[in-house]
Amino acid sequence: MVQSAVLGFPRIGPKREIKKAVEAYWSDKIDAAELEKTAKEIRLLNYKTISDAGVNVIPSGDFSLYDHVLDTTVMVGAVPKRYSSAGLSQLDMMFAMARGRQRDGVDLEAQEMTKWFDSNLHYIRPELSNDTQFSLTKDSKPIAFYKEAKAAGYETRPVLLGPVSYLLLGKAARDSKSYEPISALDQLVPVYEQLVKELVQEGAKEIQIDEPTLVLDSTSKLGEKFASTYEKLVKAAGDAKITVATYFERLDSNVDFAKDLPVHALHIDLDRGASQFDAVLKAVKSSKNSKLALSLGLVSGRNIWKNDFAASIKTAKTAIDALGQDRVIIATSASLVHCPVTLKNESKLTDEQRDWFSFATEKCSEVAVIAKALSDESSVKSELETNAKSIKARRDFEQNSDSAVRDRLAAVTEKDYERQSPFPKRLAAQNEVHKLPLFPTTTIGSFPQTKEIRTARSKFTKKEISSEEYDKFIAKEIEHVVRFQEKVGLDILVHGEPERNDMVQYFGERLKGFVFTENAWVQSFGSRYVRPPIVVSDISRPAPMTVQWSSYAQSLTKAPVKGMLTGPVTCLAWSYPRADVSKEVQCKQLGLALRDEVVDLEKAGIFAIQVDEPAIRELMPLRRSDWDAYLTWAVDSFRLATAGVKDSTQTHSHFCYSDFNDIFQHIQKLDADVISIEASKSDLKLLNIFETFQYQQEIGPGVFDIHSPRVPSQKEIQERIAAMLKTIEVKKLFINPDCGLKTRQWQEVEQQLANLVGAAKWAREEYGNKA
Ligand code: MET
Ligand SMILES: [Zn+2]
């Protein structure tokens, strides 16, 4: 019998039960016992879902109330003193690390949060130093959950984040900058040995240890560390079987040592890393570990598309021919935590659309069916037939979706990527339309999304108010935003984005080629979930999307109003992409659709047009060897979107909350006339790049952090400007905040922007003669 395995399951509950419970706990509406009760219900429900689907290997210990890296930190006792000595319960200590805590005389900041590989899930970064004393916390999560599942009648496979990856995902504590977390491996491994032993004592027969860093370039020299670690853990496990799980990319040359690990099985991602199959199979055949099994991650944990059974079975058969049935396992590519829970809660999808998708619950059945098909095809005959029909229907839809869009993309020439003239000539043309002062001031686009705005939008969605009433409301908001900006003295105004629910969703809903769900939530961090749009076909723009509100704003004022769009890369990054065509094609189609909007904004008399690309760094492939290809199409897509305008139209772009220093040449290649980029939240680290890199166009590093209600004084902003002018030329500097102001209150924004404008005026006096 070929085994089937699920690597992890969404921990949010089918109706977002965990979000509700966690938030209720945070606001003191329920106590820890009640939160724990809901959490247990969801865990047991998850085991039932996976087990009912017919999967053999059910994960436990993957559940989390916040994130699994943070849980690991608590489990191995690596909690920084300031949290562990604050007299908090383990639960409150964990939440304090995740989101800070300010009550009962305790004042703790949150720890750094960062993205889990290239996904939109985040984790709290372990903060390690020579002082970190690793020890196994009593009643640690994997043991408690294993026992809980067992008591409920489920034999599970505990999931651990492996020790090497755990350390590599961490960082040195602030006061020990030169510390290298991986140097603690010898102290950490004994904790894992003890944990493995205890799990086995409790009855665990299998353990899944995730080492996703095995797909990164940075582990290529750590072969010996992995080998010695897993030798120890395998010994600790005795007869229990350890599977080392890798995911999100190819192993590439790391397979040379991964194949010799003395473990029961090696798991590989054949969704993200499909091209590694032959190489890994060959490597496993030549492994020193002649019994090594291969766990094939065939059912994607990262997308929402139905699996193509015929294709999966073909791949699996190749593996079985080489290794035999006992050494092949059918699995999800990664944890299903990146998928929505179930299709059952979607009532608005058409039958045709529903038939394309498969969410976490449905994916469990897919894993089980593929495994059964390999043992006895006739036992799942009807499932295979139905699947073949669905896949064909989807292919037909894809083929016929929109040939005009594909023809248009095929007809794109070099010239479509180029502005009419180089930047200096454009600048001169722009100066003739609007002569901006030295140090022009502007904002990033959004103004406070007030309760009134959210209420009006929700009434409009529920059809409680008419679209005329809603439009009137939005118009009033825009007028308020414009008048405020005139009064405070900004140079380039915005309309404030009150009509936008979300910067991608707003466009997705207006573009052809996207589908939206009602309840397909996925965890982003903590209790914050997102509902990504899905790209289902060729993308085009049937009608203008933003022209109405931008030109309305412009009609109210003589000052230039900046149009505001979300860029092609960001629209794609924050959606589920199609699986049948490359991201490059989808991104360029988005670029062309946005190009139409940019040109229409220009026609409507809009002088400046901003195309936001905050996600350009986050879509970067995990392997450096794939970077160039990605950056080429990402830059090209942006240029397709923006290059259709005259010299006299000023294009802007915006970037935030990633480290852009290593891709700055590519940001330059976007050829935007002005860029704004978050800088203050990250201590102006961005400015280092300008010591060596001459940025050609105009640039506004953010002068204040918009995530904090704090109002920076004018003096503080002046100091930031002075710091920027050490490396950026006077005539190139724009003055703006780090990012949009949508999460702030009006009262804060009024003072923040008054100080910003004041500081710009000061700078004009101070540096005016140096321009
Ligand atoms: C995450 S970047 C946000 C840019 C957008 N224009 C805003 O101001 O909100
Ligand atoms: Zn931003």
UniProtKB/TrEMBL annotation:
Instruction: Provide the residue positions that the database annotates as binding 5-methyltetrahydropteroyltri-L-glutamate.
Output: K19, N120, W574
Needed cofactors, names only, are: Zn(2+)
Give yes or no: UniProt keyword Membrane. no
Q: Where does L-homocysteine bind?
A: I444, G445, S446, D612
Enzyme active site = H707 (proton donor)
Indicate the family of this protein.
Belongs to the vitamin-B12 independent methionine synthase family.
This chain belongs to the protein called 5-methyltetrahydropteroyltriglutamate--homocysteine S-methyltransferase
Q: Which organism is it from?
A: Mixia osmundae (strain CBS 9802 / IAM 14324 / JCM 22182 / KY 12970)
